[in-house]
Design brief:
four-stranded mixed β-sheet; Butyryl-CoA Dehydrogenase, subunit A, domain 3; about 15% strand; 11 helices; about 400 residues; four-stranded antiparallel β-sheet
Length: about 400
């Protein structure tokens, strides 16, 4: 088991108590009804869980990434859809603003994000730009005193629930190659800008809600930007390096999805173990049979190994400057954790047998939710490309200490 600090144990206990009392009992209903409501986010904000990575000077908790991930896993153990919203809000949104915002932007937005007074979303993907974000078509036209945004975004988590959204748009053409986007150091390449957009802005239109296999309580929508006018202070960071900023934020996002996957896997294993102890066949609990014990043993081992990798990845990510080297650890952690979650939930359904296939038992929902973690914030295939590129680079590998 990964050794936790006293602070991490305290935060873990608080998150677990909240998840057990406020999230898990409602998860099945949220899944059926397709939503969880703003009130759960308000309660998370009161606990400080919406400002975990925001510096203390801006009203946040200023936690280390590893502590944040411990909390996120516990929330995901309660419900993955809620954990996803927390991950997007804390991860890519707050990270990008903290790392690249001006002092004025940070003073204006971070305290409200940390308290939960406003909820953030992240709009990068488009109908023809998913794994290749450099291909996005949304445009930002510079005007007198500001910008005008036009385009369409897909798969925007919190897109209608949020108050402010990071929108990425071409400013001077755009860069298609992700390596090129990461390697731009002097801002000379024609690329993409990152813009903070209020969801009540004229021209910001929430379109259809996606009908998903899993994470049905998550509000994932299409967003249309119909000539949304912005003041110049809504551009965050370099106008040509928005894609590089986004990719760095996504590295943190991948760590968050890995924690989410572990929470799903942990919940599935706990349900399977409890069922195995209670369910009797041939005169004894099915937990007494070697085949079932073997499944549970491998579940526990894979979860523990994935959790250890995630904690190491978090420490490595914090110690590395943004770029390809820092990207390797989050890719490895998410790949391992998401595939573990998919395997563990599949095995949990098997342990429950016919009951596992029924909607009234939670492992069916957990199996659907686990699949999503292999897709968003970089599919497993994309992650293998990122890791493989690091393996074939000359010199010391990124994961070697």
């Amino acid at each position: 088991m990964t050794t936790l600090t006293a602070e991490q144990r305290e935060m873990q206990a608080l998150a677990r108590e909240f998840a057990d009392a406020e999230i898990a009992p409602r998860a099945a209903a949220w899944d059926r009804n397709g939503g969880y409501g703003r009130e759960v986010l308000d309660k998370l904000g009161e606990l400080g869980f919406l400002g975990m990575l925001v510096p203390e000077e801006y009203g946040g908790l200023g936690l280390a990434a590893s502590t944040y991930l411990v909390v996120l896993e516990e929330l995901a153990r309660g419900d993955a859809s809620v954990a996803l919203a927390v991950s997007i809000h804390n991860g890519p949104v707050s990270r990008l603003l903290t790392a690249h915002g001006s002092d004025a932007q940070k003073s204006r937005w971070l305290p409200a994000l940390a308290s939960g007074a406003i909820v953030g979303a992240f709009a990068l993907s488009e109908p023809e730009a998913g794994s290749d974000p450099g291909a996005l078509a949304t445009e930002a036209r510079e005007t007198v005193g500001g910008w005008t945004l036009a385009g369409t975004k897909r798969w925007v988590t919190n897109g209608g629930l949020a108050d402010v959204v990071f929108v990425f748009a071409k400013t001077d053409g755009g860069v298609r190659d992700m390596d090129a986007a990461r390697s731009v150091a002097d801002g000379s390449a024609r690329a993409i800008g990152a813009f903070l957009v209020d969801t009540d802005a004229e021209g910001y239109l929430v379109g259809r809600r996606e009908k998903t296999m899993g994470l049905r309580a998550s509000e994932t929508v299409e967003v249309a930007l119909n000539d949304v006018r912005l003041e110049s202070d809504r551009l965050v960071g370099n106008r040509r390096r928005g894609l590089a900023h986004a990719l760095d934020a996504i590295d943190l996002g991948r760590l968050g999805i890995a924690a989410q996957a572990l929470g799903i896997a942990q919940a599935a294993m706990e349900h399977a173990a409890s069922h195995a102890v209670e369910r009797r066949q041939f005169g004894r609990p099915i937990a007494a049979f070697g085949a079932v014990r073997s499944k549970l043993a491998v579940m526990a081992t894979r979860i523990a190994a994935s959790r250890a990798l995630l904690m190491e990845a978090a420490r490595a990510w914090e110690a590395s400057p943004p770029g390809p080297t820092a990207a390797t650890w989050p890719a490895m952690a998410k790949l391992q954790a998401s595939e573990t979650a998919a395997w563990v939930t599949d095995q949990a359904v098997n342990v429950l047998g016919g009951s596992g296939f029924m909607r009234e038992f939670p492992v069916e929902r957990l199996m659907r939710d686990a699949k999503a973690t292999e897709i968003y914030e970089g599919t497993s295939e994309i992650l293998r490309m990122v890791i493989g590129r690091s393996v074939t680079n000359k010199g010391r590998h990124a994961w070697q200490s």
